[in-house]
Amino acid sequence: MTDVRGGVYPFCRACTASSTAWRAPDAATRLSGMGSRFYGHRDVCPDCGSSVRTLYSTFLLIPVAFRGRFRIIRTGGRSFVGRRLLDRPAAVPAYSEEPPPSEFKDHPELVDATYEQAEAHWAARDSAGALPLYETSLAACEKVLRADDPATLQVRLRVAQALLATGDYASAIGWFELITPQLNRVFGADHKLTRIAVEGETGAQLMVGGPRAEMKLLSELVEQDEQTLGRQNPKVLRTRAALGRATMFADQLGAAVQVLEMTLADSIEGLGNSHPDTETYRSFLLEACEAADLRGKRKDRELSAAARHRRTLAPKAD
Ligand SMILES: [Zn+2]
Protein backbone atom coordinates (compact mmCIF):
# COMPACT_ATOMS: atom_id res chain seq x y z
CA MET A 1 0.00 0.00 0.00
CA THR A 2 1.28 3.47 -0.76
CA ASP A 3 2.16 5.80 2.04
CA VAL A 4 -0.68 8.30 2.20
CA ARG A 5 0.96 10.74 4.57
CA GLY A 6 -1.07 13.71 5.64
CA GLY A 7 -4.19 11.67 6.27
CA VAL A 8 -4.97 9.01 8.82
CA TYR A 9 -3.58 5.86 7.32
CA PRO A 10 -4.83 4.38 5.00
CA PHE A 11 -7.03 7.35 4.14
CA CYS A 12 -5.65 10.30 2.15
CA ARG A 13 -5.51 13.82 3.49
CA ALA A 14 -8.71 15.04 1.80
CA CYS A 15 -10.76 12.02 2.89
CA THR A 16 -9.40 12.36 6.45
CA ALA A 17 -10.33 16.04 6.62
CA SER A 18 -13.92 15.36 5.62
CA SER A 19 -14.46 12.58 8.16
CA THR A 20 -13.87 11.59 11.76
CA ALA A 21 -12.46 8.52 13.50
CA TRP A 22 -14.93 5.67 13.88
CA ARG A 23 -14.65 2.07 15.04
CA ALA A 24 -17.03 -0.42 13.51
CA PRO A 25 -19.33 -2.07 16.05
CA ASP A 26 -18.78 -5.76 16.75
CA ALA A 27 -20.93 -8.02 14.64
CA ALA A 28 -21.97 -10.04 17.69
CA THR A 29 -25.71 -9.48 17.52
CA ARG A 30 -26.41 -11.71 14.55
CA LEU A 31 -28.37 -14.28 16.57
CA SER A 32 -30.99 -11.76 17.58
CA GLY A 33 -31.64 -10.92 13.93
CA MET A 34 -30.21 -7.43 14.41
CA GLY A 35 -27.27 -6.37 12.30
CA SER A 36 -26.01 -3.61 10.10
CA ARG A 37 -25.21 -3.29 6.44
CA PHE A 38 -23.62 -0.82 4.06
CA TYR A 39 -25.50 0.31 0.99
CA GLY A 40 -24.35 2.33 -2.01
CA HIS A 41 -20.86 2.84 -3.32
CA ARG A 42 -20.02 6.27 -4.68
CA ASP A 43 -17.48 9.11 -4.75
CA VAL A 44 -14.54 6.71 -5.08
CA CYS A 45 -11.40 8.63 -4.10
CA PRO A 46 -8.60 8.39 -6.68
CA ASP A 47 -5.93 8.85 -3.97
CA CYS A 48 -6.84 6.30 -1.33
CA GLY A 49 -9.56 4.28 -3.03
CA SER A 50 -12.16 4.86 -0.32
CA SER A 51 -15.80 5.18 -1.25
CA VAL A 52 -18.84 6.68 0.43
CA ARG A 53 -21.31 4.13 1.76
CA THR A 54 -24.42 4.46 3.89
CA LEU A 55 -24.85 2.29 6.97
CA TYR A 56 -28.25 1.03 8.04
CA SER A 57 -29.26 -1.06 11.00
CA THR A 58 -30.98 -4.16 9.74
CA PHE A 59 -33.46 -6.58 11.21
CA LEU A 60 -33.52 -9.98 9.50
CA LEU A 61 -31.42 -8.35 6.75
CA ILE A 62 -33.98 -5.62 6.07
CA PRO A 63 -32.71 -2.05 6.55
CA VAL A 64 -34.67 -0.41 9.36
CA ALA A 65 -32.71 2.62 10.55
CA PHE A 66 -30.24 5.06 9.01
CA ARG A 67 -26.96 5.07 10.97
CA GLY A 68 -24.82 7.48 8.98
CA ARG A 69 -22.58 7.93 5.98
CA PHE A 70 -19.02 6.63 5.97
CA ARG A 71 -15.86 6.52 3.88
CA ILE A 72 -14.92 2.87 3.61
CA ILE A 73 -11.79 1.05 2.46
CA ARG A 74 -11.99 -2.73 2.10
CA THR A 75 -9.06 -4.53 3.71
CA GLY A 76 -9.73 -8.00 2.36
CA GLY A 77 -12.60 -10.44 2.72
CA ARG A 78 -15.44 -8.96 4.74
CA SER A 79 -13.20 -6.63 6.74
CA PHE A 80 -12.92 -2.92 6.18
CA VAL A 81 -11.83 0.30 7.81
CA GLY A 82 -14.15 3.27 7.92
CA ARG A 83 -14.43 6.90 8.91
CA ARG A 84 -17.70 8.68 9.60
CA LEU A 85 -18.39 11.55 7.21
CA LEU A 86 -18.77 14.99 8.70
CA ASP A 87 -21.58 17.23 7.50
CA ARG A 88 -18.97 19.91 7.05
CA PRO A 89 -15.17 19.55 7.00
CA ALA A 90 -13.61 20.22 10.42
CA ALA A 91 -13.00 23.92 10.96
CA VAL A 92 -9.48 25.10 11.60
CA PRO A 93 -9.36 26.06 15.29
CA ALA A 94 -9.22 29.81 15.84
CA TYR A 95 -7.18 29.79 19.04
CA SER A 96 -3.42 30.04 19.02
CA GLU A 97 -1.45 26.84 19.36
CA GLU A 98 1.58 28.16 21.19
CA PRO A 99 3.46 25.20 22.60
CA PRO A 100 4.13 25.17 26.35
CA PRO A 101 7.70 26.12 27.33
CA SER A 102 10.34 23.52 26.56
CA GLU A 103 13.81 23.04 28.02
CA PHE A 104 14.98 22.54 24.45
CA LYS A 105 16.55 26.03 24.20
CA ASP A 106 18.93 25.21 27.08
CA HIS A 107 20.43 22.34 25.09
CA PRO A 108 22.08 23.69 21.93
CA GLU A 109 23.66 20.27 21.36
CA LEU A 110 20.20 18.98 20.37
CA VAL A 111 20.10 21.25 17.34
CA ASP A 112 21.73 18.95 14.83
CA ALA A 113 21.02 17.90 11.29
CA THR A 114 19.35 14.56 12.13
CA TYR A 115 15.89 15.92 12.85
CA GLU A 116 15.91 18.12 9.75
CA GLN A 117 17.00 15.17 7.62
CA ALA A 118 14.18 13.12 9.13
CA GLU A 119 11.66 15.85 8.31
CA ALA A 120 12.94 16.00 4.73
CA HIS A 121 12.46 12.23 4.29
CA TRP A 122 9.02 12.49 5.91
CA ALA A 123 7.97 15.36 3.64
CA ALA A 124 9.12 13.32 0.63
CA ARG A 125 6.83 10.46 1.83
CA ASP A 126 9.82 8.28 2.65
CA SER A 127 8.63 7.05 6.06
CA ALA A 128 11.05 4.13 6.17
CA GLY A 129 13.96 6.52 5.60
CA ALA A 130 12.66 8.99 8.20
CA LEU A 131 12.03 6.45 10.99
CA PRO A 132 15.64 5.65 12.06
CA LEU A 133 16.53 9.36 11.92
CA TYR A 134 13.58 10.26 14.15
CA GLU A 135 14.62 7.48 16.53
CA THR A 136 18.17 8.85 16.72
CA SER A 137 16.81 12.32 17.33
CA LEU A 138 14.49 11.03 20.04
CA ALA A 139 17.29 9.17 21.83
CA ALA A 140 19.28 12.45 21.95
CA CYS A 141 16.25 14.34 23.32
CA GLU A 142 15.48 11.75 25.98
CA LYS A 143 19.06 11.84 27.21
CA VAL A 144 18.75 15.45 28.39
CA LEU A 145 15.07 16.40 28.33
CA ARG A 146 12.15 14.98 30.28
CA ALA A 147 10.16 12.32 28.46
CA ASP A 148 7.16 14.66 28.53
CA ASP A 149 9.00 17.83 27.56
CA PRO A 150 7.05 19.41 24.66
CA ALA A 151 10.04 18.95 22.34
CA THR A 152 10.48 15.28 23.27
CA LEU A 153 6.77 14.65 22.83
CA GLN A 154 6.82 16.09 19.31
CA VAL A 155 9.63 13.73 18.28
CA ARG A 156 7.89 10.82 20.02
CA LEU A 157 4.77 11.58 17.99
CA ARG A 158 6.82 11.59 14.76
CA VAL A 159 8.30 8.18 15.63
CA ALA A 160 4.78 6.82 16.21
CA GLN A 161 3.52 8.28 12.93
CA ALA A 162 6.48 6.84 11.00
CA LEU A 163 5.91 3.38 12.54
CA LEU A 164 2.25 3.58 11.53
CA ALA A 165 3.12 4.69 8.01
CA THR A 166 5.56 1.80 7.62
CA GLY A 167 2.93 -0.70 8.77
CA ASP A 168 4.46 -1.63 12.15
CA TYR A 169 1.07 -1.39 13.85
CA ALA A 170 1.98 -3.05 17.16
CA SER A 171 4.92 -0.71 17.82
CA ALA A 172 2.87 2.29 16.67
CA ILE A 173 0.01 1.39 19.05
CA GLY A 174 2.53 1.09 21.91
CA TRP A 175 3.73 4.64 21.26
CA PHE A 176 0.30 6.17 20.65
CA GLU A 177 -1.14 4.65 23.84
CA LEU A 178 1.74 6.10 25.84
CA ILE A 179 1.96 9.58 24.32
CA THR A 180 -1.73 10.41 23.82
CA PRO A 181 -2.35 11.00 27.56
CA GLN A 182 1.00 12.81 27.81
CA LEU A 183 0.18 15.12 24.87
CA ASN A 184 -3.27 15.62 26.34
CA ARG A 185 -1.79 16.75 29.66
CA VAL A 186 0.99 18.94 28.23
CA PHE A 187 -0.70 20.48 25.18
CA GLY A 188 -4.43 20.02 25.93
CA ALA A 189 -7.08 17.85 24.29
CA ASP A 190 -7.83 20.30 21.47
CA HIS A 191 -4.26 20.84 20.38
CA LYS A 192 -3.30 19.78 16.87
CA LEU A 193 -0.63 17.33 18.12
CA THR A 194 -3.03 15.63 20.53
CA ARG A 195 -5.59 15.26 17.77
CA ILE A 196 -2.96 13.77 15.43
CA ALA A 197 -2.11 11.20 18.12
CA VAL A 198 -5.76 10.27 18.71
CA GLU A 199 -6.34 9.91 14.97
CA GLY A 200 -3.13 7.90 14.56
CA GLU A 201 -4.04 5.56 17.38
CA THR A 202 -7.51 4.96 16.01
CA GLY A 203 -6.04 4.42 12.54
CA ALA A 204 -3.58 1.81 13.82
CA GLN A 205 -6.32 0.01 15.79
CA LEU A 206 -8.58 -0.04 12.75
CA MET A 207 -5.85 -1.66 10.69
CA VAL A 208 -5.37 -4.39 13.30
CA GLY A 209 -9.06 -5.17 13.93
CA GLY A 210 -10.80 -5.42 17.30
CA PRO A 211 -9.20 -5.51 20.77
CA ARG A 212 -8.73 -9.29 20.56
CA ALA A 213 -6.69 -9.08 17.36
CA GLU A 214 -4.76 -6.25 19.00
CA MET A 215 -4.06 -8.40 22.08
CA LYS A 216 -2.68 -11.18 19.91
CA LEU A 217 -0.40 -8.86 17.92
CA LEU A 218 0.87 -7.02 21.01
CA SER A 219 1.52 -10.16 23.04
CA GLU A 220 3.56 -11.61 20.16
CA LEU A 221 5.69 -8.47 20.10
CA VAL A 222 6.14 -8.48 23.90
CA GLU A 223 7.23 -12.11 23.83
CA GLN A 224 9.69 -11.50 21.03
CA ASP A 225 11.25 -8.31 22.47
CA GLU A 226 11.34 -9.54 26.05
CA GLN A 227 13.81 -12.27 25.05
CA THR A 228 16.32 -9.85 23.55
CA LEU A 229 15.68 -6.56 25.37
CA GLY A 230 14.53 -7.64 28.83
CA ARG A 231 11.38 -6.77 30.76
CA GLN A 232 12.36 -3.27 31.80
CA ASN A 233 13.30 -2.04 28.33
CA PRO A 234 11.19 1.04 27.42
CA LYS A 235 9.85 -0.62 24.27
CA VAL A 236 8.79 -3.76 26.16
CA LEU A 237 7.12 -1.53 28.78
CA ARG A 238 5.20 0.38 26.07
CA THR A 239 4.05 -2.74 24.27
CA ARG A 240 3.01 -4.48 27.49
CA ALA A 241 1.10 -1.39 28.63
CA ALA A 242 -0.74 -1.31 25.30
CA LEU A 243 -1.45 -5.03 25.70
CA GLY A 244 -2.97 -4.28 29.11
CA ARG A 245 -5.14 -1.54 27.57
CA ALA A 246 -6.32 -3.83 24.75
CA THR A 247 -7.08 -6.52 27.37
CA MET A 248 -9.18 -3.97 29.26
CA PHE A 249 -11.06 -2.98 26.09
CA ALA A 250 -11.68 -6.70 25.44
CA ASP A 251 -13.40 -6.70 28.87
CA GLN A 252 -10.92 -9.13 30.44
CA LEU A 253 -10.61 -6.82 33.41
CA GLY A 254 -8.78 -8.99 35.94
CA ALA A 255 -6.17 -9.96 33.33
CA ALA A 256 -5.80 -6.29 32.34
CA VAL A 257 -5.10 -5.34 35.96
CA GLN A 258 -2.41 -8.05 36.18
CA VAL A 259 -0.67 -7.03 32.93
CA LEU A 260 -0.72 -3.33 33.86
CA GLU A 261 0.50 -3.98 37.40
CA MET A 262 3.46 -5.90 35.99
CA THR A 263 4.16 -3.02 33.60
CA LEU A 264 4.08 -0.50 36.43
CA ALA A 265 6.40 -2.58 38.63
CA ASP A 266 8.91 -3.03 35.78
CA SER A 267 8.72 0.66 34.89
CA ILE A 268 9.44 1.72 38.49
CA GLU A 269 12.49 -0.59 38.42
CA GLY A 270 13.65 0.36 34.94
CA LEU A 271 12.76 4.04 34.53
CA GLY A 272 12.20 5.20 38.09
CA ASN A 273 9.18 5.97 40.23
CA SER A 274 8.61 9.55 39.07
CA HIS A 275 9.44 9.11 35.36
CA PRO A 276 6.60 10.52 33.18
CA ASP A 277 6.11 7.10 31.54
CA THR A 278 5.82 5.43 34.95
CA GLU A 279 3.19 8.04 35.87
CA THR A 280 1.26 7.19 32.71
CA TYR A 281 1.42 3.44 33.40
CA ARG A 282 0.22 4.11 36.96
CA SER A 283 -2.81 5.95 35.57
CA PHE A 284 -3.48 3.01 33.18
CA LEU A 285 -3.48 0.60 36.12
CA LEU A 286 -5.81 2.83 38.10
CA GLU A 287 -8.20 3.04 35.14
CA ALA A 288 -8.22 -0.77 34.78
CA CYS A 289 -8.85 -1.14 38.54
CA GLU A 290 -11.76 1.27 38.27
CA ALA A 291 -13.21 -0.69 35.34
CA ALA A 292 -12.79 -3.96 37.28
CA ASP A 293 -14.48 -2.49 40.36
CA LEU A 294 -17.35 -1.18 38.29
CA ARG A 295 -18.01 -3.94 35.77
CA GLY A 296 -15.87 -6.90 36.79
CA LYS A 297 -16.79 -10.25 38.25
CA ARG A 298 -15.84 -11.04 41.83
CA LYS A 299 -12.43 -12.39 40.82
CA ASP A 300 -11.68 -9.18 38.82
CA ARG A 301 -12.62 -7.03 41.82
CA GLU A 302 -10.35 -9.09 44.08
CA LEU A 303 -7.42 -8.64 41.67
CA SER A 304 -8.13 -4.92 41.57
CA ALA A 305 -8.21 -4.61 45.37
CA ALA A 306 -4.93 -6.53 45.69
CA ALA A 307 -3.21 -4.37 43.03
CA ARG A 308 -4.45 -1.17 44.66
CA HIS A 309 -3.09 -2.37 47.98
CA ARG A 310 0.32 -3.45 46.62
CA ARG A 311 0.79 -0.32 44.50
CA THR A 312 -0.62 2.01 47.18
CA LEU A 313 -3.14 3.39 44.71
CA ALA A 314 -6.15 5.16 46.14
CA PRO A 315 -8.61 2.53 47.43
CA LYS A 316 -11.92 2.10 45.70
CA ALA A 317 -14.25 5.05 46.26
CA ASP A 318 -17.52 4.07 47.94
ZN1 LIG B 1 -9.02 9.61 -0.37
Automatic annotation (TrEMBL):
Signal sequence residues: none
Domain of life of the organism encoding this protein: Bacteria
Biased composition (Basic residues): 307-318
Coiled coil stretches, renumbered: none
Region (Disordered) location: 297-318
Protein name (database record): Tetratricopeptide repeat protein
Pfam families with a match to the protein in the record: TPR_12
